[in-house]
Amino acid sequence: MQPTIRRFTGTKRTVRVGPLRFTGDEHAALQEAAAEHGYKGESGFTADIALAFITGRFTANLPLSEDRRRTHMFRAQVLRELNRIGVNVNQIARALNSDLTPPDVRDRLDELHHLLDLLAQALCEPVEAEKEQAA
């Protein structure tokens, strides 16, 4: 059974999404695949693939999206942990402001603050690297 090509059903697509960008080799492969499946151009072919993927009629192993999902989950876990650390730091600050804490605790808090700065910098580095690669 051949898949139905949307352009033959009479439903006209009017909303534009894009522009999509491809390298020369990718574009040539896309044109070739579209022609193999009976499309006159690559835009209808690309739209049908996207819609099939969205509706679940077509699945693909997309390592890039899986990597992004894992990165997002990791960052969310780190943010939750940093929030918990922040709650503890606030409790420590409240105790310090009560003047009932020994002076060596202040030195340890300075070390903790330095470590939190290093963590924040480390978490920002992958985002900055991704932005540079996208540009």
Question: What's a concise summary of this model?
Answer:
This protein has helices spanning 24-36, 42-55, 63-97, 103-134.
Question: What does the model show?
Answer:
With 135 residues, this protein is mainly alpha-helical. The chain contains 4 helices and no strands.
Biggest sheet character: none
Termini distance? 43 Å
Helix content: 55-70%
Roughly what is the average pLDDT, rounded to an integer? 76
Number of strands: 0
Ranges where pLDDT stays below 50 over 5 or more residues in a row are none
Shape: elongated
Rg calculated over all Cα atoms: 26 Å
What proportion strand? under 5%
Total number of helices = 4
- State the secondary-structure class: mainly alpha
H-E string: HHHH
Write the layout of secondary structure elements.
Layout: H1 24-36, H2 42-55, H3 63-97, H4 103-134
Helix pairs in contact: 1-2, 3-4
Main attributes?
mainly alpha, 0% strand
